[in-house]
Description:
Blueprint: E1 13-19, H1 30-47, E2 50-56, E3 60-66, H2 74-95
Antiparallel strand pairs: 1-3, 2-3
Helix pairs in contact: 1-2
Amino acid sequence: MPRGPRQKSESGNYHIMLRGVNQQNIFETDEDREKFLQILCDCKAISGFHLYAYCLMSNHIHLLLQTMPNADSLEQIFKRIGVHTGTVLLCACVQG
Protein backbone atom coordinates (compact mmCIF):
# COMPACT_ATOMS: atom_id res chain seq x y z
CA MET A 1 0.00 0.00 0.00
CA PRO A 2 1.45 3.41 -0.91
CA ARG A 3 2.19 5.92 1.79
CA GLY A 4 -0.29 8.73 2.33
CA PRO A 5 0.41 12.35 1.45
CA ARG A 6 3.10 14.08 3.50
CA GLN A 7 1.73 16.33 6.23
CA LYS A 8 2.86 19.95 5.95
CA SER A 9 4.71 21.24 9.01
CA GLU A 10 3.71 24.67 10.30
CA SER A 11 7.31 25.26 11.42
CA GLY A 12 8.78 23.94 8.14
CA ASN A 13 10.91 21.43 10.09
CA TYR A 14 11.18 17.92 8.66
CA HIS A 15 12.99 14.69 9.42
CA ILE A 16 13.45 13.06 6.01
CA MET A 17 14.61 9.51 5.42
CA LEU A 18 15.63 8.36 1.93
CA ARG A 19 16.18 4.67 1.22
CA GLY A 20 17.66 2.67 -1.59
CA VAL A 21 15.32 0.52 -3.66
CA ASN A 22 14.76 -2.84 -1.89
CA GLN A 23 17.08 -1.52 0.85
CA GLN A 24 20.03 -1.71 -1.55
CA ASN A 25 23.11 0.36 -0.77
CA ILE A 26 23.05 3.97 -1.88
CA PHE A 27 26.72 4.55 -1.09
CA GLU A 28 29.48 2.11 -1.92
CA THR A 29 32.50 4.34 -1.21
CA ASP A 30 33.44 7.48 0.68
CA GLU A 31 33.67 9.19 -2.71
CA ASP A 32 29.96 8.43 -3.24
CA ARG A 33 29.18 10.07 0.11
CA GLU A 34 31.31 13.11 -0.74
CA LYS A 35 29.53 13.52 -4.09
CA PHE A 36 26.13 13.37 -2.38
CA LEU A 37 27.20 15.94 0.22
CA GLN A 38 28.34 18.28 -2.57
CA ILE A 39 24.99 17.85 -4.32
CA LEU A 40 23.18 18.52 -1.05
CA CYS A 41 25.26 21.67 -0.49
CA ASP A 42 24.59 22.91 -4.04
CA CYS A 43 20.85 22.24 -3.74
CA LYS A 44 20.77 23.96 -0.34
CA ALA A 45 22.27 27.10 -1.89
CA ILE A 46 19.74 27.07 -4.75
CA SER A 47 16.62 26.06 -2.80
CA GLY A 48 17.20 28.12 0.33
CA PHE A 49 16.50 25.50 3.00
CA HIS A 50 18.28 25.18 6.33
CA LEU A 51 20.05 21.85 6.92
CA TYR A 52 20.43 21.17 10.64
CA ALA A 53 21.76 17.61 10.58
CA TYR A 54 22.37 14.65 8.32
CA CYS A 55 23.39 11.02 8.67
CA LEU A 56 24.56 9.03 5.66
CA MET A 57 24.24 5.28 6.13
CA SER A 58 25.14 2.72 3.48
CA ASN A 59 21.52 2.08 2.46
CA HIS A 60 19.66 5.16 3.70
CA ILE A 61 19.98 8.84 4.56
CA HIS A 62 18.51 10.95 7.36
CA LEU A 63 18.13 14.72 6.91
CA LEU A 64 16.82 17.24 9.42
CA LEU A 65 15.92 20.38 7.53
CA GLN A 66 13.68 23.42 7.54
CA THR A 67 11.97 24.84 4.49
CA MET A 68 11.77 28.60 4.39
CA PRO A 69 8.86 30.86 3.43
CA ASN A 70 9.14 32.21 -0.12
CA ALA A 71 11.67 29.50 -1.01
CA ASP A 72 11.41 26.10 -2.70
CA SER A 73 8.86 23.63 -1.35
CA LEU A 74 9.92 20.28 0.07
CA GLU A 75 8.78 18.62 -3.16
CA GLN A 76 10.91 20.99 -5.26
CA ILE A 77 13.91 20.45 -2.99
CA PHE A 78 13.81 16.68 -3.38
CA LYS A 79 13.15 16.83 -7.09
CA ARG A 80 16.29 18.96 -7.43
CA ILE A 81 18.35 16.60 -5.23
CA GLY A 82 17.08 13.57 -7.16
CA VAL A 83 17.81 15.05 -10.58
CA HIS A 84 21.32 16.15 -9.57
CA THR A 85 22.10 12.81 -7.91
CA GLY A 86 20.83 10.84 -10.91
CA THR A 87 22.89 12.95 -13.30
CA VAL A 88 26.08 12.49 -11.27
CA LEU A 89 25.55 8.73 -10.94
CA LEU A 90 24.79 8.37 -14.65
CA CYS A 91 27.96 10.28 -15.56
CA ALA A 92 29.99 8.08 -13.20
CA CYS A 93 28.56 4.92 -14.81
CA VAL A 94 29.28 6.16 -18.32
CA GLN A 95 32.84 7.16 -17.41
CA GLY A 96 33.50 3.99 -15.40
